[in-house]
Design brief:
Blueprint: H1 3-10, E1 13-14, H2 32-41, E2 47-54, E3 56-57, E4 69-70, H3 75-94, E5 100-108, H4 116-129, E6 132-142, H5 149-157, E7 162-168, H6 172-178, H7 184-196, E8 201-208, H8 215-226, E9 232-237, H9 259-275, E10 279-281, E11 285-287, H10 292-299, E12 303-305, E13 308-310, E14 316-320, E15 325-328, E16 331-335, H11 339-347, E17 353-358, H12 361-376, E18 378-380, H13 381-387, H14 392-396, H15 402-407, E19 412-414, E20 417-419, H16 428-433, E21 447-448
Parallel strand pairs: 2-5, 2-14, 3-4, 5-6, 6-7, 7-8, 8-9
Antiparallel strand pairs: 1-21, 9-11, 10-11, 12-13, 15-16, 16-17, 18-20, 19-20
Helix pairs in contact: 3-4, 3-11, 4-5, 8-9
C-alpha cells in the first residue's frame, strides 16, 4: 500500500466497531427504567450471552485501555463481588422468561484476581440464575503473572472451556517500557496448568506498535507463542489515547513506532502465523483451521461484539459489573463505570444502568453493513438493504467517503457489492466508517485507523 495512503487514512481516529453506534454516542436518555422494560420483553426463546466485568488488577500496565484499577488488598474485590452477585440476581429477576445462555465471558481487569472459592460460587450463581446450556462456552481473561494453581483448579472445576492469556510481548525492553514484566516460563506454566485442568481452548493476546518494539521482536514473540500451540491469537495494534487513559502518559511517545513500522510489524506477525498454519480471521485474530472461529470465518457467520470477533450468534448480551455494556434487541445499555456508584445503585435494588442507546431502523441497517465489512472484508450492500426494506442504490449515493476510498483502491465496487483488496485489509475500519452516520463527534477517544 502506498505510503501517502497510509499517511492519509492511517492517521484517522475511528471506532473499532465492536458496536454501532460506538459507545461514546450512548447517553442518559436510556436508563434503568428503559433497561428494565427491555429485559422484561426479552423472549424466552432468545439465545443470550453474559459478560461479567471485574475491574481490578494487581498492577497497572501502562498501555492498558480497559476500565480497571489497582488494588493490593482483597477487601475491595470481595465487596465488589458481593455487588456483582446482587446485580446478577436483580437482572435475572427482571426477565419475564429465562432465555438460553450459550456464552459466558469474564473480562477485566483481571477476573482471576478473585479467590478460587469466590469464582466457583459466582459461576454456580450464574447457573442458578440463568439456564446455561450444558455445552455453553465459558471464557475467562487471565494474567499469567498472577495465576496460581488453586485458581487454575477452580477454573476447571467451574466448567471454564476457554482461557485468554495476556502476553503482549516477550521483548524485555518492551516489557520494561510498558511496565509488564512477564517471562516466557510464566506463560508456559500457565498454559500447561490450564490444559491439565481440562480447559481445552487457549487464546493468547499480543500487541504491536508498543514502545521500543521492532519487527524482529514481534516475530520473536510470535515464534515463542507458537511453541505453546494456542488455538487462537488476537493481535491488536496499541491504541495510544493518553487524553482518555492518563496512565498512558507514562509511555515515551518518542519510542512509539511510526505508522509504516506498525504496519510492517502487523504484516510480519501475519506472515509468521500464516506460515505456521493459522487462518487469519477478520482484522486481528488468527485461529487453527479446525477452531470454531476459523470455521465461522469460512462459513461467513463470524460476528463482532464488545469482546471483538466471536462465534457467538446470540440475540442478546447481558452485561454485569461496573462499566459493563449489554446489547438487547432494542439497543445498548451500559452500567455506571465508577465502582462505588455502581455498587450503590445495586445496593438500593436498582439496575446499575447509567446510559445507553435505542437503535433506529437506520442504525440496524448500518450496524449489519459495518459488521459484515469488519468480519468479511466485503459486503453485499444490495442483499443487506433488501433485508431491511431499503434501496441500496439510494443508500450508496449518500455515502460521501466511499468515492475517495474507491479511487484510492481501498475498496472495489461491482454493482452493490463492495470488497476490500488483500493489501488494504489494514484499512478496513476506514471502509466501515463510510457507513457510519454518527462519525465525527467523538474522534478524540478513538485510536488511529492504522
Amino acid at each position: 500500500m502506498r505510503e501517502d495512503l497510509r499517511t492519509l487514512y492511517g492517521a484517522e481516529r475511528l471506532p473499532r466497531y465492536t458496536s454501532y453506534p460506538a459507545s461514546p454516542h450512548f447517553d442518559a436518555a436510556v436508563g434503568a427504567g428503559t433497561y428494565a422494560d427491555w429485559l422484561r420483553a426479552l423472549p424466552g426463546a432468545a439465545t443470550t450471552s453474559l459478560y461479567l466485568h471485574v475491574p481490578f488488577c494487581r498492577a497497572m500496565c501502562w498501555y492498558c485501555g480497559c476500565h480497571t484499577s489497582v488494588t493490593r488488598h482483597d477487601a475491595p474485590i470481595a465487596d465488589y463481588l458481593a455487588a456483582l452477585r446482587a446485580e446478577t440476581v436483580l437482572v435475572a429477576g427482571h426477565l419475564a422468561r429465562s432465555p438460553r445462555v450459550r456464552h459466558v465471558h469474564f473480562g477485566g481487569g483481571t477476573p482471576t484476581i478473585m479467590a478460587p472459592d469466590a469464582f466457583r460460587d459466582l459461576v454456580a450463581l450464574l447457573r442458578d440464575s440463568f439456564p446455561l446450556d450444558p455445552d455453553a462456552e465459558v471464557a475467562v481473561e487471565i494474567d499469567p503473572r498472577t495465576l496460581n494453581p488453586a485458581m487454575t483448579r477452580a477454573l476447571g472445576e467451574a466448567g471454564v472451556t476457554r482461557a485468554s492469556l495476556g502476553v503482549q510481548s516477550f521483548d524485555p525492553a518492551v516489557q520494561e517500557a510498558i511496565r509488564r514484566r512477564q517471562g516466557y516460563d510464566v506463560t508456559e506454566a500457565a498454559v500447561a496448568g490450564l490444559r491439565a485442568a481440562g480447559i481445552g481452548g487457549i487464546n493468547l493476546d499480543l500487541i504491536y506498535g508498543l514502545p521500543h518494539q521492532t519487527v524482529a521482536s514481534c516475530v520473536d514473540t510470535v515464534r515463542q507463542c507458537l511453541g505453546l500451540r494456542p488455538d487462537r491469537l488476537a493481535v491488536f495494534g496499541y491504541a495510544h489515547v493518553p487524553s482518555f487513559k492518563k496512565h498512558q502518559r507514562r509511555i515515551d511517545e518518542a519510542a512509539l513506532p511510526d505508522g509504516a513500522t506498525r504496519q510492517a510489524q502487523a504484516e510480519a506477525i501475519a506472515g509468521t502465523l500464516g506460515q505456521a498454519g493459522y487462518v487469519r480471521v477478520g482484522l486481528d485474530h488468527y485461529a487453527l483451521p479446525g477452531d470454531p472461529m476459523a470455521v465461522a470465518h469460512a462459513a461467513g457467520t463470524l460476528r463482532r461484539n464488545f469482546q471483538g470477533y466471536t462465534t457467538d450468534p446470540s440475540e442478546a448480551l447481558i452485561g454485569l459489573g461496573a462499566s459493563a455494556i449489554g446489547r438487547l434487541p432494542q439497543g445498548y445499555v451500559q452500567n455506571d463505570p465508577a465502582v462505588r456508584a455502581y455498587a450503590g445503585r445495586v445496593a438500593r435494588g436498582e439496575l446499575a444502568t447509567l446510559k445507553g442507546y435505542a437503535l433506529t431502523p437506520d442504525d440496524r441497517l448500518r450496524a449489519e453493513l459495518i459488521e459484515r465489512v469488519m468480519c468479511d472484508f466485503a459486503v453485499d450492500v444490495g442483499a443487506v438493504c433488501r433485508s431491511h426494506g431499503r434501496d441500496p442504490d439510494a443508500l450508496l449515493a449518500t455515502l460521501p467517503r466511499l468515492p475517495a476510498l474507491a479511487a484510492h483502491g481501498l475498496v472495489r465496487r461491482k454493482g452493490t457489492f463492495l470488497g476490500i483488496p488483500d493489501d488494504a485489509r489494514g484499512f478496513v475500519r476506514n471502509v466501515a466508517a463510510a457507513f457510519d452516520a454518527h462519525l465525527g463527534t467523538s474522534a478524540a477517544i478513538h485510536s488511529r485507523a492504522a
